[in-house]
Design a protein that fits this description.
With about 60 residues, the chain is α+β, with helices and mostly antiparallel strands. The protein has a single domain, classed as Signal recognition particle alu RNA binding heterodimer, srp9/1 (2-Layer Sandwich), CATH 3.30.720.110. Helix content is about 15%, strand content about 45%. Strands 1-4-3-2 form a four-stranded mixed β-sheet, with helices on one face. β2 and β3 form a beta hairpin. The chain is globular. This is Putative lyase.
Length: about 60
């Protein structure tokens, strides 16, 4: 099985830009920069060292 095939973690923060900048600076693999989605959510996505997808939503 490929790394990260089955797992995803969804987190939320009040400061998406700050959280994203800290994770990017620490060397996290960026999948999607902070984006306003058409369905009303602002989020970003990264992968952890094991390849698992981590999505972070911004609380409003």
């Amino acid at each position: 099985m490929a790394k990260g095939t089955y797992a995803m973690i969804l987190l939320a923060t009040e400061d998406l830009d700050g959280t994203f900048e800290r994770l990017q600076a620490s060397g996290a693999e960026v999948v999607q920069e902070p984006t306003e989605q058409p369905y009303g959510v602002r989020d970003c996505a990264l992968r952890d060292p094991a390849g698992n997808l981590i999505r972070i939503d911004e609380l409003r």
